[in-house]
Fold these 2 entries.
Entry 1:
Amino acid sequence: MKSLRKIKTFLQGFILFNILWYIIASIISMKVLPKPTDVYLNMNHLYGKSLYIHVLVSLYRIFSGLGIALILGISIGLIMAYSNLGSKLLNPLVYFTYPIPKTALLPVVMLLFGLGNSSKIILIVFILVFQVIVAVKDAVLNISPETYHPLTSLGASKLQVFINITVPAILPALLTNLRLSIGTALSILFFSEGYGTQYGIGYYILDSWMRIDYMAMYAGIVVISLLGFALFILIDIIEETLCKWKATSTN
Amino acid sequence: MLEIDELSVSYLPDKKAVHALGPISLKVDSSDIYALIGPSGCGKSTLLHVLSGIIKDYQGQVTLNGKKINPKKHDIGFIPQNFGLLAWKTVYKNCLLSLRIKEKAITSSHIERIDYIMDKLNITSLRDRYPRELSGGQKQRAAIARSFIMSPDLLLMDEPFSALDALTREEAQELFVDMWNQYKTTTVFSTHSIEEAIYMGKKIVIMSHCPGTIVEIIDNPLFNTKNLREHNEFHKLSAHLRNVVKKGWKL
């Protein structure tokens, strides 16, 4: 099992990381870098202080952003791959906007959509959607024409071709992309939660920092890291179930 | 009965029409098996692509059992050179694909037929494997099974055995002829091996260089003969074929 092996690797990494952290913290011995043991022991404590609300709010923003980006990105990617006109119209737009650092648009998004959840979700969508579009478009265009032949000779309808060829053929690329997107989404989330909100794990970290509550700040960093890892494992599990044909090796 | 009347095909790369095939006229009786032999690039694949409905842009008439050939109306089994199995479906699901696309309800008699054919082609034990876990010969047998399972009106094979090593090829040819004798499906296949044409074709169609036309159609008395090479006639026929082929290919 791939995901089990990954969890093992994660645990090894986790232990090594903490040993290093512990040694460095012991050597430096400053308040700004507490020992990991202290941070973990303190975390129990924080759970009661509604840390979980921040986690839930952040999860809501990530999943909404990811969901909308996927729906939009897959649709636009498919249009670009299958329709000449669509590709002609959208390609220059995507090509032009792809390299713009969308985080710079944070003020614009906030001015247009307010300080609430929607501006944070929209920023995540902005950044992820272009990657999804490009991944889906390329995956569809990479399907070799021969792949369609058996179905064409069976007289398959467009829908049948879509279900039997397009969807399974683009899934691996889509999931790889999703894995990268989640890392990006978490970074953007952290950034955008620094503004105009009282909730979210990003806010929690920044707020603790300002209040010189380093224990809580580190706890927040640990939590956001675990969140990223949990999402990573989730994608591995999805990939293992949906792309069995790819994961298994000969014999 | 498959009737091909004055069929010709041109491609349009870079707006300069390239005449790839024809004009060709050919009548294939029901329960006949035709071998197309000719130099590479002579349009064998093009002809098979027209018959399988992959190429829709052609001049002339092609009718199957009195109706214009159409993969939505006819049941056409097409086995491409790379066998055309879908990488994301197990052997069993690949075998069911033809019935699924034709939206036939899978009855117990279907299941019986599927089990029988899979058993006969010796792929029952591979039913839950994915194509990437199969050898060339196994993929080939799965592809043959898929085509026979839907009892096609017309079976087309594009150099079906050329990707196999010599030993596997002989075995696969025997298995195929065995299957064919049982179901007597009207079949057209292309090959570049004179021996294969003599072993598997009731009629042998020799094609010329591009644009491919028919040089000669030979009634093959040696169809389905075991130990071909021991027959005197085999050497005569293959010498004759070689002769015609050489002449035809120079044209």
Entry 2:
Amino acid sequence: MDKKFLALLFFIPFAALAVWAMWLYVQQATGQEIRVAVTGYDPRDLLSGHYIQYTIDWEKTDCTQFADGKCPKEEFCKEHHWGRQCRFYVPEKNAQELDRLFWRRNDTDMVFEVVYSYHKGSEPLAKQLLINGKDWRESLVENMPLKR
Amino acid sequence: MKLANKLQNWVKQGLISPTQAEQILLSEQSDHSNMVWKWMYGIAGLFIGLGIILIISANWDYIPAWLKLFGNFAIWAAVLYHTCQSVINKKSKISEILLVVSFLFVGATIGLIGQIFNLNGGWQSFAMAWSLLGLPYVFFSRLLSFNFCWNVLFFTSFDFNFIERVLNYINQHLDGLILALAVLSLLSYAGKKLDESANKYTLLPKAFQNFSMFTAYILVFSTCFWYNTGIISVAAYIIAFLFFGVRMFMAVKAQDMISFKRNAIAVEVYIFLIFVSRFENLLLSGFGFIVAGIAVLALIYSLRKTSKYIKTMEVFHG
């Protein structure tokens, strides 16, 4: 078998995934920043593995952030049995603490939001998880006493 | 009887010379040793690949995302370079490991990208992307188990709801079972035919043949538990026994004694499963098991007789 052909064949998946990663990076970096409020997706399974599952609370989201003033609900997240479900990956060691904060948000008046990079017509990419407007890592440190 | 003892007997009987016996023994030991090495290399490759998947997919809190991606692509590029070299230079042992590792790298990279960019895709899209992008590595592998695993992965990328609907239909309608077995047998046959011409290049058709037949056997064994009412369960058992019968007939035709014996064992296991699925009160089950045991003994006796008869047939002396 031709060596060049074999090398090409073996490097096709590599190149495809590298291009995909770069494309996602460009999409994330160049998209319009949109901030959406989030709420629990499924009370039985908020944390699955190392990511948070949530759904977008469109009633608490400011739709004027979008060009035509309408929230494009269908473009966000993936349809599942119980509604649209989204994911935000977090380190395993913080997952439980974040879960605890999330479920105490009504008692503590915490607001959970996710910042998305949005391009009209393509899947929005989640960039950052905010708690009361701050990055979740900062809020986690501030709310450590809640753990006790 | 061990091969060494057999050879000694043959030498005593004057069927072969001591030199021939020695050569046969050496050749057999070498074949066996090659097989063991292949398995060991395969397992080593699997462990290394799984280890890489776990390390890359784990959340490295203090490593920036771009570094994780870059590191992953850099290691993968090195692995791919050596994979190419080993395949071109026909170093079969090392190339098998590297092909498995390269394939696992595809899955690990997709997982890592999904994690870094918070993608929402589920298992099906992951399995589809992994199996299709990993196809070049499977294509060049001569490990049947690896090719079989690829078939399973690809199968799991299909719509689970559709498969669930099909299974629900099959476990209520016998025509569905017959159709499914016919389709799977045809697919297996197609895999076999394709393998005859493609085996030189790839084991994928052979793995597909095995996978289709493996699925057919799972369906047949499931009939013990699916159909619980009266005549439909009896009909399902008859279909299952017919299936085993056809497989044994085909084994005889293909002069495949191993397949014949495996199917004979499958029949015994199937009879056992029928009684397990029908387990009711202790007394009846006790009688049931005794009857089943006697039936299995009768089956073993008839199979031994049949096997001896078949061995003497011309077809087994091809």
